[in-house]
Task: structure prediction
Amino acid sequence: MFGRNNMNLNVLSLMEEKFHPKLISLYNLAKEKAADELMKIEQIVETNCLKVLGAFQNYGVREIHFHGSTGYGYDDYGREVLDNIYAEIFGAEAGLVRWQIMSGTHAIALALFGNLRPGDELIAATGLPYDTLHEVIGLRGSNTGSLKDWGIDFKAVPLQNGKVDIEGLVKSITPKTKMVSIQRSRGYAWRPSLSVEEIGQIIKEVKKINKDIICFVDNCYGEFTQIIEPPQVGADLVAGSLIKNPGGGIAPTGGYLVGKKKYIHGAANRLSAPGLGRKIGATLDINRLLYQGLFFAPSVVGEAMKSAVLAAYLGDLLGFVVSPAPGESRCDIVQAIELGSPERLIAFCQGVQKGSPIDSVVSPEPSDMPGYDTQIIMAAGAFIFGSSIEISCDGPLIPPYIAYLQGGVHVNYNQVALLSAFQEMYEKGLLFFPQ
Ligand SMILES: *Cc1c(COP(=O)(O)O)cnc(C)c1O
Result:
């Protein structure tokens, strides 16, 4: 007992060495205020863990499934079972989980190019989609092989006060409309994430007009933040990244799609080649990591959500506008904090970097990024390069200078990154503690 008390004292003084005492006391207050929300997240984690464990058991996962294949990768049981486990967990008919899918954008592009044909029209229900998709659609660049180059039209129905304009969406549907896309997470936008229930509402209205319209969901950052997933409310096709939520911080690369069999086949034919589809693709030595990451994913997402909640409460106590606000529902792992000046945004990101396990000695600077049309500052001190299920923070250098903080595999580590961010602002004279 005595030794344990001693240790607690040491930990406290370590925190005090690093951070201003006022910052620590505000953080402790944030923890108290957030208690109910943190408990609700625990309940979500519990349910999702049971769901994941159930799928592993239903498919009788064994050590043999971790052995990868080489060459063509035919008859790779580990790969097939993982596809099926994803399908079960997400409540879909089929899955396509591959390290050969290079990012979330790639997974989404497979969904689009694999299922849209010349003359079709794609409608985005949630306003302009995530930045990296602009070139995919053909909003930027020319003769890049975009949807536009292939004769596929696009329109976006703008959000109204952060909500999907269902009436406007329904009106915009034409006989050419083949797919409606819905983005669950906020991305780099000051809008709320969509709940799976809200996604279901949109799908219901679209299907009333034409049941054959493919309802596609960009699920990036949304997985395991609730106890149901989009296919369970009628989404036909869903895509996401394995270096975000479902990879659990363990998957070293990859993406996934789940959905109706025919649409998964469309995406798989685009990934490999028509006729080869899902049947090909050596897994080398990666299967175990994808299984293990999925196994950890519900609890890792819970840690990330708890950290986002604490960031919201602390940011609010420090006088910043935050979204989601304390107490507001959240259906992704992203916490936006409006910092109001480029200096604060830069200092905040540099502080997150300083508080990260990897590359804590380097300092991020704003720069141009492929796929984005403004300068971005990104803090990423992760084991897996660019992983944003590990703690990371980024923001475009445009007013009102919003930091988007996400991820973190453990709340105790994440709190250091969060406190470092505010400490950095304080040390640069950019933060004043409320009286
Ligand atoms: C991250 C993200 C993407 C793109 O994923 P990348 O892996 O960065 O290519 C698309 N949509 C949303 C909402 C995202 O958060």
Summary: Residues 99 and 253 are 6 Å apart (CA to CA).
